[in-house]
Amino acid sequence: MRRFLVRRFGQAIVQLLLVGSIVFFLARLIPGDPARAALGDAATEEQVALTRAAMHLDEPFLGQFLGFWARLFQGDLGTSMISGRAVMQDLPSRIGNSLELVLLALAVSLVVGIVLGRIAATRADKPADHALVAGSIFGISLPVFVVGTLLLLVFAVLFPILPPRRFTSPWEDPVAHLQILILPVVTLAAASCAVITRMTRAAMLETLNADYVRTARAKGLAEKRVIRRHALRTAMLPVVSMTTVELTTLIGSTVLVETIFGWPGMSSLLMNAVGQRDYPVIQAVVLAAATIVILVNLVGDLAVRVLDPRAEDN
Amino acid sequence: MATAPESVAQALPDTPSRANGGRKPFFKRMLANRRTSVAGAFLLLIVVVAVLAPLIAPHDYRDIVGKPLTSGGTLGIDDFGRDVLSRLIIGLRTSLGVAVSAVLVAGVIGVALGLVAGYVGRWVSTIIMRGIDVLLSFPPIVLAIAVVAILGPALVNVVLVIGVLYIPRFTRIVYSQVLSIRSMEYVEASKIMGTRPADILAKTILPNVSAPIIVQLSLSVSFAIQMEAGLSFLGLGAQPPLPSLGTMVGAGRDFLEVQPTLLIYPSVLIILVVLALNVFGDGMRDLLDPRHRGKNS
Amino acid sequence: ACGNPVTLPESMEAVRPNAGGPSRGGALYFGLSTDPANLDPHVSTGSASDYLRQLAYNGLVQYDGSGEIIADLASEFGWSDRLTYKVKLRPGVRFHDGSTLTAEDVVFSFRRMMDKETAATSGPLLDQVDSVEAVDATTVAFRFEQPDVAFPFALAAPTSNVVSRKWIESGANTKTQMMGTGPFRFVERIPGVSTTFVRFDDYFEPELPYLNGIVFQPMGDDYARVTALRTATVDMIDYVPATHVGVITRNPRLRFASDKTFGFGFVGFVTTQRPFDDVRVRKAIALSINRPSVLDTALLGNGRPMDGALMPETFAPYASRLDGSMPYDPEQAKFLLKQAGQEGLTLPVVTTSSYSVIARPAQAMLPGLRAAGMNVNLTQQEWLTFRASVAGKTFPVHSWGTAPKFGDPASLSDFIGSSGAFAENLDFRDDKIDDLLAQGRRTTDPNLRNEIYLEAEKRALELVPMTYTIRREQGEAHYTHVRGYEHPPKGAWTATALRRTWMEKTA
Amino acid sequence: MTTGTTTGTETGTTPSDTILAVERLSVDFQIAGEWTPAVKDVSFSVAKGEVVALVGESGSGKSVSSMSVLGLLGPNARRRGSIRFGGTELLGLDEEALRAIRGRRIAMIFQEPMTALNPVYTIGEQIVEAIQCHEPVPAAEARARTLELLKKVGIPEPERRMHSYPHQLSGGQRQRAMIAMAVSGSPEVIIADEPTTALDVTVQAEILELLRRLREDLGSAVVIITHDMGVVADLADRVVVMREGQVVEEAPVTRLFSDPRHEYTRKLLSAVPRQQPGEEPEADAGDAGGSTTLRVADLEVEYPGRLGRKGFKAVHGVSVTIEKGKVLGLVGESGSGKSTIGRAIVGLVRASAGSIEICGQDVTSLKPKELRGLRRKYSMVFQDPGSSLNPRLSIGDSIAAPMIVNRYADRRAVQQRVLDLLDQVELPTGWADRFPHELSGGQRQRVGIARALALDPELLIADEPTSALDVSVQATVLRLFQDLQDRLGFSCLFISHDLGVVELLSHDVAVLQHGRLVESGPARDVLRDPRTDYTRRLIAAAPVPDPVEQAERRRLWREMAG
Ligand SMILES: Nc1ncnc2c1ncn2[C@@H]1O[C@H](COP(=O)(O)OP(=O)(O)OP(=O)(O)O)[C@@H](O)[C@H]1O
Ligand SMILES: Nc1ncnc2c1ncn2[C@@H]1O[C@H](COP(=O)(O)OP(=O)(O)OP(=O)(O)O)[C@@H](O)[C@H]1O
Ligand SMILES: [Mg+2]
Ligand SMILES: [Mg+2]
């Protein structure tokens, strides 16, 4: 296990170096000029050129590239070219806000998806199963922003049960914070919930037929326990290993959700930075996101190893 | 697949299997399953509509045919005064075209990578699978914006972007499946015969990992329709006035309270297509698997 | 506060009624269409950021409710002779740090704006200023080589702010901090979350401001911004999208403060690229745009078609004389195209997807162009990409939207003058227009100016370097309990009205 | 306890002894909406402390009948008739009451311990769970009992093994854990469904010994399902023979073996390969000066360890040769490296040292291209007929595959040859388009043989080709194999743990232990007159289908093992 961890950490570092380098060049390949973004609409070409120089955008790529890594290794994520703020000043809290949304949505979709998947599997080919399959298709088919908009319209405007509030930090007012969390989390969870339902159903249909489930029944275990401890537990293995892919999908979807609900997360920071070609911020956010994804993949692989004792040996 | 004529099959002596549906030709078996055939018929209809879209649409999708946001035409008039039905038909064509080709791109590349990584193993799989992780770790929208911004917002590029973004889904699934199949004795039997590795992958392993691929394909089409919609939401999908179901949903959002049908019609169409694809995909998975032959008649 | 917005203390939200006058206290929550990225007093990244700037800083002069220029930090101001403009400062004005405003600070501020390195938004408007000096402790003199009628507009611009010399020279980060003489003190900006201001108690106008604080919350998504207003999450929003004007005006608790004069859409041509170097082609395109229909579909009628002058009649008396110069006439357009040998022309047009007020008109004009036998390849690009395309002239035609910099025909030069920021994108240069514009800027007689600019606009309508499409209705929406707010009048693009806004009660 | 007097079974157990009575049991399965019978009017009974063996061909309903007892069939099953346990009617008993019986009073041992144990829990956890579900004992006590049980079933190092997951145990150990779980509730009846299939003889002997001891210690009745007549002879008191869902004969074990009444029983017994004195594969023509088909010299195979971990050396310097037309039997206990040698010869694993010559060419040094030509000279029959055929290919296509890959002939000729081969392995030629799952195990194995013979190989590697088949099928396959070998005269490396089979087929035998050759020579010499203890133990462990003789062998084996 330790060897596995060491090796995977080594790979993770290589991956991050790769991500950092790719994003450095990718960001600069996008047409558009950060100097233009910093100066607004009415600036003349001459002003833009001067500002470009002030932003060191005229310097050779290679120098900028090496400088980026040199600073990064000193723990300096850089400073926004547009707002002049140090990236470190904003990034941690924004990542925190995004992760809160994403992890909660993941938790919700795991819990709901597994419960529904279990119901669908134990009632396979009965009306409840068909309804759940159709329902999950519904969740998969509707674009995130439509779900978000509809929820806003219904629960905030028409029947103001959960009006969007000013963003309140959980430390100041946990109740208000929870209230503003509900709609974005539900929006985000809708699609992945459907995917997890389908996956759980498929996996459980397999395990329900497994010999060891029959063994568990033969032992005299109560049916509930047979399903929970024996059928469901092993069915979780494929679900867990797909959950990591699902998490990255969720991180991707937060762009829309954060925009719609005005959630101050990492994605909106990133979208702003992309819109302004604020290279240091883009680089920092993408690196942060990549770190999360790579870590999550690692944790996922570890989880499978822990949950499935067989995995270690092959 | 060698299929014997039915008469021969029935003339056979006592068989150990009771799978008597097993001898029917593929197509007949498909028709025998009501859910699969209804879904298949619907998809066929959709494809015909998509292919013949310009001929079927009652109006040019760009023409002003009435007062904006009224209920003229069959399904109403949109905010630019255009016929909603005609735009739905053309939008269907756009969305299906983009989504299906994107998923095919992703499927072909992703499956190939997964097959190679799983079969060859060792450093090859490390490189492929860690590369896939790198791909996964880019926020999809960033990758999309960057690539589309560099290549331009043409639909082909959108197909490429979505295709590349969806590669990991296929690679991961295929990889884990191949790992469990590559040591099966029938694979070893192929090796001993001297079958080339490429043939073993394509003809022996691929068909046996096809079930999850088919499910993933049908699921991914829905994600791709959405992704295109998401990209249009960010101004990167189909370029106006060309509609796609996604852009129509996005545009309909603004008129949710004025004329909700602008949002409802394309949404319902997406749901129907995805539902049909999934039902059909599940049905195909069972039909293609000889072990499921004759199960549900 | 770790990434979470500074919510103002509850006590600040209380409103104290004041018999016979504006109530005091309360906090205004404002949903802003863009997150003001850069707080520099002299560089504007767009109208949203000007709201903030004008709360913390003051200029020498400002616009009043009817768009006339009145004093701000100045107590007296005006041309002392043809080539000298003098400003006498109000006494006893204090900066937020307690120091007193001096003429030195004013001189320093304008020199900073005129320094090209600053890339100040007002910089180009100050290009005629020869020197700026402190005459005495409270008087500043601007000297010119030739008269400049547009200069007062430069002084009233939202980015012509006076800063503390000491503060800047102490190395303050002007992008992240604000420190001025304005009615509100800057507290904190959390990117993407909020920017918070509280009342400055030592403001030089004793009554002002009425509010205890203002919190701006960026809400980029139109739908989200309108919803936030409808659910009373915020008291006020800017940039009401045309598609939601109806929802807002139907609600009796909301007020829509808007104008139809200022913002407009246009289609620009790279006049050096074939076949758009042929004026007949440009004119044909201009004639094929069905402006009333564009207005009805793109903006749901919220605006006015624009078939004559660029400048609105509110500050250009000649404007009505040009009405109807660019009718919808596809037949004539076809004829012109035929003449130019460009029948069945394919038109590559670029526009931006980032702003619906720009994207929607571009889309709405397509049927008209098709009716005249043209094929349009519309490409929507993300904002900065679009800007790069326009500046790089990679598309021969672009569809854009903007507003004049200030409420005087002198602002025409941005669009049709050869060095104008927008004309640069068109490769457009016409000596006659340049002459007229220079003349207009020197001429003080209003009637004469009127004739000169009429002439310039006429010529622009003949040469069609760009064709104007529609004026959009643009404005802010707020609850009726928010009082005293006025939309910037007469194209006077400013947001000083927020300084005088008060609340009758909280939401 | 109401005494349901059973109408006496043929052998008439006294009703008072009867603990489990199955009467006129019929089981139907709903397939494609239709009810298909699997078991028809089956009756048998079991007395206290008695061992009843259920035997019969594959698919005859043995497992279904036994699982009916505890209601463990899926939701698509329908049972009719009566199953009485003590005085309780089990059919139609509600789930709650049934659960009180399951595990506690009637326990089951399933056929495949790998799949029947949950792979994600340690065996300790699974046994503790079994204990606790019937008695609310504290965790510590349950663990202590588990430890005791593991000791009782003879798992070495029970403290450590308790915390092992199923995959970390050998097949025999897994089966013991399964048994420990089954007896944890001191059940009155143990139903063991093929508890020793796929285990090698030595392990099998230990497990049978264990079952016997348990019966003595707990006084439980045992229902054992098996296809191995040797096992029956070893363990059973009474035998129930089933065929096509019906009981065809029921008799005490000695009588059944001495005087089988039903024709099918006789067939079953005669199908068991056993050494007929004096009979051995005749040394045929190739004998004199025959060329050598396979020469393996000083073969070493090492499985690489993962990432720097030490590898595992499975074969140590083994040398064997097979002359043209000869069969070499390779025997040895589980894990001794038999399969590894076979796999090394066909190139599925790399030899780390030594040489392998096939028809005079050293395959270890050939390049893939050069190997191509040689490929058609050898082929392999795999152990598991289920997994060696591609489930997506029709059997005709499977048989045709080697011919197509090696461009043996044009399509038409290949088709013809497929039909010929099917004919040779005695399958109807019309079955070419069937899929593997539509065939029985024996039929599948024949397809595997047909495929291996498609290119007229000179060397055939057969890795336990019959271990997973029931006796009657096994007999057919073996007969066929012998036949083909006689006719076609290929050389063969025959890997097996069934000494009877080996003796039947092989000219020579090589005995393997821990990857080393311990003994080799002509089959008769080695098997009749083993020189090493290891070989002797191997021979003694194999049960013979004769209750009397087997009792004697068991005594011998106990001595050796003890
Ligand atoms: N769940 C099921 N659904 C449908 N048919 C079944 C099911 N289980 C068993 N059968 C059928 O019932 C018949 C009896 O099967 P059973 O498992 O009892 O055979 P068996 O005697 O145990 O054979 P083997 O020696 O191969 O284990 C077979 O034809 C089998 O295909
Ligand atoms: N892929 C592998 N990696 C590492 N070790 C292996 C591998 N395959 C087999 N072994 C080990 O090599 C040894 C010999 O295995 P092999 O399969 O040749 O045994 P066998 O004699 O065929 O046994 P059985 O009768 O159980 O089939 C065993 O200890 C086994 O654990
Ligand atoms: Mg069985
Ligand atoms: Mg083996």
From TrEMBL, chain A:
Subcellular location: Cell membrane
PROSITE patterns in the record: ABC_TM1
Signal peptide: none
Keywords assigned by UniProt, alphabetized: Cell membrane, Membrane, Transmembrane, Transmembrane helix, Transport
GO BP, sorted A to Z: transmembrane transport
Domain annotation ABC transmembrane type-1: ranges: 95-300
Family per similarity comment: Belongs to the binding-protein-dependent transport system permease family.
UniProt-listed Gene3D superfamilies: MetI-like
Cross-referenced InterPro entries: BPD_transp_1_N, MetI-like, MetI-like_sf
GO cellular component: plasma membrane
PANTHER family: DIPEPTIDE TRANSPORT SYSTEM PERMEASE PROTEIN DPPB-RELATED
Stretches that traverse the bilayer: 12-30, 101-120, 132-162, 174-196, 235-261, 281-300
Annotated membrane topology: Multi-pass membrane protein
Taxonomic lineage of the native organism: Bacteria, Bacillati, Actinomycetota, Actinomycetes, Streptosporangiales
Name of the protein in its database record: ABC transporter permease
From TrEMBL, chain B:
Domain ABC transmembrane type-1 positions: 92-281
Region described as Disordered: 1-20
UniProt-listed GO biological process terms: transmembrane transport
Origin superkingdom: Bacteria
Coarse class of the protein's main subcellular location: membrane
One GO term describing the cellular component: plasma membrane
Subcellular location: Cell membrane
Keywords carried by this UniProt record: Cell membrane, Membrane, Transmembrane, Transmembrane helix, Transport
Keyword Transport (UniProt): yes
Topology within the bilayer: Multi-pass membrane protein
Ranges annotated as spanning the membrane: 38-57, 96-121, 141-167, 262-281
Family affiliation: Belongs to the binding-protein-dependent transport system permease family.
Protein name (Swiss-Prot/TrEMBL): ABC transporter permease
Organism of provenance: Nonomuraea longispora
Lineage, broadest ranks: Bacteria, Bacillati, Actinomycetota, Actinomycetes, Streptosporangiales
UniProtKB/TrEMBL annotation, chain D:
GO cellular component: plasma membrane
Keyword Transport on entry: yes
Record-linked PROSITE patterns: ABC_TRANSPORTER_1 (PS00211), ABC_TRANSPORTER_2 (PS50893)
Topological relation to the membrane, as annotated: Peripheral membrane protein
Any one biological process term the GO annotation gives: peptide transport
Superkingdom of origin organism: Bacteria
Keywords of this entry: ATP-binding, Cell membrane, Membrane, Nucleotide-binding, Transport
Cellular localisation: Cell membrane
Occurrences of domain ABC transporter (ranges): 22-269, 294-539
Molecular function (Gene Ontology), one example: ATP binding
CDD domains membership: ABC_NikE_OppD_transporters
Gene3D superfamilies: P-loop containing nucleotide triphosphate hydrolases
Region (Disordered): 270-290
Keyword Cytoplasm attached: no
Listed SMART domains: AAA
Similarity-based family: Belongs to the ABC transporter superfamily.
Protein name: ABC transporter ATP-binding protein
Organism: Nonomuraea longispora
Taxonomic classification: Bacteria, Bacillati, Actinomycetota, Actinomycetes, Streptosporangiales
